[in-house]
Amino acid sequence: MALNPNVNTVLGPFRMKRYSAFAIAREAARYHQGWERAWASPEPKAHYDAIIVGAGGHGLATAYYLGKNFGITNLAVIEKGWLGGGNTGRNTTIIRSNYLQDPSAAIYEKARSLYETMSQDLNYNVMFSPRGVLMLAQTHHEVRGYQRTAYANALQGVKTEFIGPEKVKEICPIMNIEGPRYPVMGGLWQSRGGTARHDAVAWGYARACSDMGMDILQKTEVTGVTREGGKVTGVETSRGHIGCDKLGIVVAGHSGHVAEMAGFRLPIESVALQALVSEPIKPCMDIVVMANTVHGYLSQSDKGEMVIGGGTDSYNNYTQRGSFHHIEETVRALIETFPMISRLKMLRQWGGIVDVTGDRSPILSKTPLENCFINCGWGTGGFKAIPGSGWGFAELMAKGYSPLTAEFGLDRFKEGRFIDESVAAGVAH
Amino acid sequence: MLILTCPYCGIDADETELAAGGQAHIKRETVGASDDAFEEYMFMRENPKGVHFERWRHANGCGKWFHAARCTMTLEVFGTYEAQTYEPPAEIRAAISAKRPGWSWGSFS
Fold it and tell me: Is residue A249 within a helix (H) or strand (E), and if so which, with residue range?
């Protein structure tokens, strides 16, 4: 085609064509030669109003809402690898908001509600599937814990309910609820939780950002943060120095590394979290099940693979692999509850580096540097939060305050204001 | 699988035989500490890409705590040593320097 999407002389900055049923019909009639690149790959400018480091879901969502809600579009998202190639493309795509603490419920429910309309907002099919999320109670302690969470959710306006074992069996017939080691005593059921296509979330945001005229700079590694008088002036990158008025660091597992470049420390340790998928089988389970006692969770993808997530390794690690015995433990425990998976072959296993804080809640905060902000510490459960995190963090960067992020400050550790989810509903998934 | 040599009983222990205990050489603060010092002790952690010092317990063996020097990027183990020390011994530091010249970690290098 004649038009190079990066140099559109008619419209100036990159403008996307809308995806629609009509567009599919139109392209079908001309041998699909009219599809354009979804986002531009420009050369970096010398200076931007704002720079986001990290083009994962959270970084791209932050950029999108900075543009959409606050009109900040002279913005670059800098990514050392490729867009969405970190934890955004490695998670098990679960979306839920059934947390115990009010600040958590607020930001996760904001995210979940934004997922409901994301495909329409972004004009990109993120395949949000509110199929329902069930968190199994397999000990008496969990029964009490989840009943408490259900009451908390009722007060927070998050729709969940505690259901008994018969109802569990009814909505998930393949489950063995008898035990003996891990009997199913009930579950916390969030009917509007579910899954979405994780790559599409990153791609959809990237396309929308590019459409607003933002620059997404892939394969551009940040190697330093330049500072002057307690303020950030820009970043050193593998493609030269890029100046900025505001800097947002959204780099998940590598947060400690980038924060060190900026000269401050974080209460974070990075560990590997693993997941695996089976060979594809016929549809057998149309909900998401999480079994926190055994640290395993299970759903079936649209391709038919059983998607299984496990627990984290117990030691610091940046290798994006994990220890094999954790997988063995997860699968061994899940087989008792789901006997039919015992003969499945596993196709792939992988790991991602997750940034875990002391109270297992994220950090969306100002930093010791005046115009530098950090969004990290999502640990093992960041995907579900992407739109809410971006919404709140964009407001924090634009206005210096957001009700969504106010409780998630970096100073909460020193002040003892923990948002303690580690012993509550959100057992770090 | 990670394999660490227990410095007490000398056994090459598989990861499944061990319990990870987090960062080593943390200076513990108590009554009278400043807020900053207490935050540093309680929450702030070294999280390097590279050389790291950490505590392990030979849980399914002799039961004792020891320290290990390990690379978080490659999982290479530089050595293990007994926990009754405030800083890594000279031979461990030398073993790291041989493979990672110019390394630093916290106040050590």
Answer: strand A240-249
